[in-house]
Design the sequence.
């Protein structure tokens, strides 16, 4: 749930910066410390255990696949 919120807010901020004249050309990097969530987001396959995840969480996977958002692990 937090990944989808972070993705939404990061994309909104990038659009806002473009509107006020500060174009963003770099990827949006979001740092997280949950390896399982990052793996599920990066992995394009749907596993048996994640089949009941709500549709809105696929928003993050979609933008990750488009190359707009990148999730990075930190300790």
Sequence:
């Amino acid at each position: 749930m937090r990944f989808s919120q972070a993705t939404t807010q990061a994309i909104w901020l990038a659009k806002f910066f473009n509107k006020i004249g500060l174009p963003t050309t770099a990827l949006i990097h979001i740092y997280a410390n949950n390896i399982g969530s990052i793996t599920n987001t990066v992995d394009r396959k749907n596993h048996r255990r994640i089949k009941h995840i709500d549709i809105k969480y696929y928003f993050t996977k979609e933008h990750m696949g488009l190359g707009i958002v990148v999730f990075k692990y930190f300790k």
